[in-house]
Design brief:
163 residues, alpha+beta, 5 helices
């Protein structure tokens, strides 16, 4: 192998290594401790208002990190809270807003057909700045906007940890 060919091969290997280094990302994500605090606060907030709910917290990938179900919460609330959390984390938006978009925009009406999506109020993204690190879904209050209020209160309760 000639000296110039060896040099070219080494340069190419170094360039490939640099490209691989740029492909690795660092992301913030939801800790178990934070997820448990959010779920517990959401359930407690709804209980204060007389609603027996379930709360599910997911990480940025939509994977469940914490679940709490209040005494007397219906069995359907577990699935609803998980789907709301998944929808919110996936779309990076409140599920109430997504529902309204789907209702008003015929082009978005098919969002209801995405597996795992639930377009009812009660799913809220958890953010650090503008970066979504997860979401909370609440199900079981008499209306989605009430579920959302409990989710928002839970996020507000931990806002100092989201910096």
């Amino acid at each position: 192998m000639t000296k110039s060919l060896k040099f070219a091969f080494i340069a190419l290997a170094c360039a490939a290594g640099a490209a691989n280094a740029q492909a690795v990302r660092t992301e913030r994500n939801m800790s178990l401790e934070l997820a448990n605090q959010i779920a517990a606060t959401a359930v407690a907030t709804c209980a204060t208002n007389g609603y027996a709910v379930s709360a599910t917290v997911v990480d940025r990938a939509g994977t469940v990190r914490a679940v709490q179900r209040a005494d007397n919460a219906g069995p359907h609330t577990l699935g609803a809270s998980q789907q709301k959390a998944f929808t919110s984390a996936s779309a990076k938006n409140n599920t109430l807003a997504i529902m309204e978009i789907a209702q008003k925009n015929p082009g978005a009406a098919n969002l209801v057909n995405i597996p795992g999506y639930l377009l009812l109020g009660g799913g809220v993204p958890v953010k650090v700045g503008n970066e979504v690190i997860g979401a909370v879904g609440v199900g079981g209050a008499p209306a989605g906007n009430l579920d959302e209020q409990c989710a928002l209160a839970a996020i507000d309760h931990v806002k100092e940890l989201l910096k």
